[in-house]
Amino acid sequence: MFIERPPVIYRMLFPGAIWRINQSDKCVYLTFDDGPVPEITPWVLDLLDKYNIKATFFCVGDNVRKYPETYQQVLDRGHLVGNHTFHHKQGISSRTKNFVLNAALAARYIDSELFRPPHGHMRFPQVLKLRKDYKIIMWDVVTRDYSKYLNAEQVFRNVKKYTRNGSVIVFHDSIKAEPRMKEALPKSIEWLLEQGYTFKLIEN
After folding, report:
1. Which residue range forms the structural domain that includes residue 50?
2. Using CA atoms, how far apart are residues 143 and 62, in angstroms rounded to an integer?
3. Cα separation, 86 vs 65, whole angstroms
4. CB 10, CB 2: distance < 8 Å
5. Closest CA relative to residue 106, chosen from 141, 60, 137
6. Is 53 left (phi over 0), alpha (psi -120 to 50) or beta?
7. pLDDT at 100 over 90
8. pLDDT above 80: residue 1
């Protein structure tokens, strides 16, 4: 549970970061990390179109550089984007100056005031620096679709077990997550709709 829904004490390490939104409304905020990649992201976009759902894609700057057409598809379909650093850099193992510069490099390709740190880790000084320029978006539910130790059904169970009003939910439009995400994401959308959840966009 520590990973799927970080506890309050962990959330306190990131003052000002957003983990959950509109707790009184039966809604969720669907997000995707680590794209865009042409092998996966267009499939996700087509699925979201099918259900008329908009989501927020936290993009790796180098992927945007390499695949500008795929990135443009995300924008053209009406989704939001956020900064996920240029090299998918982990804050916990980076000097603050280097981490902030890596986010700034990504910002040359990604026009957004939203930021999510890769792996959800940052040092406290990095939080203080980045929150001056960005709205830091974390999560209330991470599906763990990236984990080779889970199958698609377990990923789906994570959505069912941990989702609540206002949850920010994380899937991954990445090659690593593809085997689990492609099965679990449609099931999750169907289940969330059956439970009466609406899908909302994070405000930029």
Report:
1. 8-199
2. 24
3. 9
4. yes
5. 60
6. beta
7. yes
8. no
User: What CA dihedral angle connects 191, 138, 100 and 70, to 10 degrees?
Assistant: 10
d(CA 121, CA 164): 23
CATH assignment of the domain containing 185? 3.20.20.370
**What does the block give as tokens for 162?**
């941990």
The answer to whether position 2 is within a domain reads no
b/e 85-116 (16+ beta carbons within 10 angstroms → b)? bbebbebeebebeebbebbebbbebbebebbb
* Tens-digit pLDDT profile for residues 15-35: 999 999 989 999 999 999 999
User: Is the predicted pLDDT of residue 187 greater than 70, yes or no?
Assistant: yes
What is the DSSP secondary structure assignment for residue 43, as one 8-state letter?
H
Treating both helix axes as pointing N-terminal to C-terminal, what angle do 41-51 and 178-194 enclose, rounded to 10 degrees? 10
Res 3: pLDDT? 83
Is residue 1 a part of any domain in this protein? no
Structure letter (DSSP) for residue 201:
P
Neighbour-count burial for 38-67, b at 16+ CB within 10 Å, e otherwise:
eebbbebbeebeeeebbbbbbbbbbbbeeb
**Which ranges constitute the DSSP H helices of the chain?**
8-11, 41-51, 61-66, 68-76, 96-107, 124-130, 152-162, 178-194
Domain count of the fold of the chain: 1
Tokens of 56: 């927020």
